[in-house]
Amino acid sequence: MEDTIFMKIIRREVPAHIVYEDDETIAFLDAKPNVPGHTLVVPKKWAENIFDVDDATLAAIMRTVRKIAPAVRDAVGAHGVHINSNHGAAAGQIVFHIHFHIIPRHDRSEFEFWPKREYSHDEFAAIAEKIRANIS
Ligand code: AMP
Question: Is residue 30 part of a domain?
Answer without folding.
Answer: yes
